[in-house]
Amino acid sequence: MFRSVLRANTNIAKTAFQKPATAPLLRQALQQTRAYHPKVIDHYQNPRNVGSLNKNLPNVGTGLVGAPACGDVMRLQIQVNDETGIIEDVKFKTFGCGSAIASSSYVTELVRGKTLEEAGKIKNSVIAKELSLPPVKLHCSMLAEDAIKSAIKDYTSKRRVTLGPEADAKVNLESSVSAH
């Protein structure tokens, strides 16, 4: 995509400079186009932690989020050390624009090595600021934040107490709530 835009701009420039009267118009048009920040391009061209984890493992949480307005879909998976509560591995797969892919890639670097609580506090503003996302692309950083929260929620839902007196108390509480 970046190459085709560059190629189109190069062709426009060649044509414009052959007709000197159009050169000022070309300069104005090129100044109005918004280029991606180098960090976005880096994460887009060299995404980190692309792939999948086994979603059936009890220490893996999967978050799947999407933005219907633009068609971006993001899946983020975290693998948590059960003893320490630290995110040891993280993978993503994203279908979307360059900013969505870059946001996913960056957030995988951000959450690795953090506790669930620390990862859950990551805000989209941190992601957007680091990648210098323009206002029209802020939804990509919001998706990344939602994906983190969704993966944490999935992980914690798998970790519910299933044995012992705590489980019995929880079952009794749930059944009394559902009875009302």
From TrEMBL:
Gene3D superfamilies: 3.90.1010.10. Its cofactor is [2Fe-2S] cluster. Residues 35-159 form the NIF system FeS cluster assembly NifU N-terminal domain. Keywords: 2Fe-2S, Iron, Iron-sulfur, Metal-binding, Mitochondrion, Transit peptide. It is found in: Mitochondrion matrix. CDD domains: IscU_like. Pathway: Cofactor biosynthesis; iron-sulfur cluster biosynthesis. One of its GO terms (biological process) is iron-sulfur cluster assembly. GO terms for molecular function: 2 iron, 2 sulfur cluster binding; iron ion binding. Coiled coil: none annotated. NCBIfam families: iscU. This is Iron-sulfur cluster assembly protein. It comes from Komagataella phaffii (strain ATCC 76273 / CBS 7435 / CECT 11047 / NRRL Y-11430 / Wegner 21-1). The lineage of its organism: Eukaryota, Fungi, Dikarya, Ascomycota, Saccharomycotina. The gene is ISU1.
